[in-house]
Amino acid sequence: MGVLTGVCVFRGDGVSGSVTLSQDEAGGPTKIAGTIKGLDAGKHGFHIHEFGDLSQGCSSTGGHFNPMKMAHGAPTASERHFGDLGNIVANEDGVATVSITDSMVTLIGDNSVIGRAFIIHESINAHCLLVNRMSNQASVVVVADDLGKTSHQLSKTTGNAGGRVAGGVIGRGKAA
């Protein structure tokens, strides 16, 4: 069969780059490697979403790819979505180098990620200022994938990862 590959080219407001996925055999781990530029410095949630539909930008890609109906979790957790890949980190120049090996992501079979979308979420440095009107106290809410480990209402579904800043459809690459 040879090595199967997939390719995802990212587009967003000032964001560009690509990752290549490769899998040696059915049931084996998938390697994800590439570079993304134009990001805010810091951590960004990095997930595979259900649909490769970018007709309405990143908002039409659905939720995290989750065929087993599990709670959101860290890439190393036994309970997680297939699409939960944690955070990537962009340096001061806005460049993130991706190097992930994952045992749930597959390019083969019913749960293949080919035709689905990768989404990059807001940086932990992008934040919202919330003001409690009763006490006039302000608090800063940071965003990055919390890996399903907080009490936030979105932690077990999205990792409270924040808005979507870039995405791309995973296409089948040439077999190596």
UniProtKB/TrEMBL annotation:
Q: Which GO terms describe its molecular function?
A: copper ion binding
Q: Which GO terms describe its biological process?
A: superoxide metabolic process
- What PROSITE patterns would the database entry show? SOD_CU_ZN_1
- Location of the Superoxide dismutase copper/zinc binding domain: 15-123
**Signal sequence: where?**
none
What PANTHER family does the record tag this protein with?
A: SUPEROXIDE DISMUTASE CU-ZN -RELATED
> What is the name listed in the Swiss-Prot or TrEMBL entry for this protein?
Superoxide dismutase copper/zinc binding domain-containing protein
Q: What is the lineage of its organism?
A: Eukaryota, Sar, Rhizaria, Endomyxa, Phytomyxea
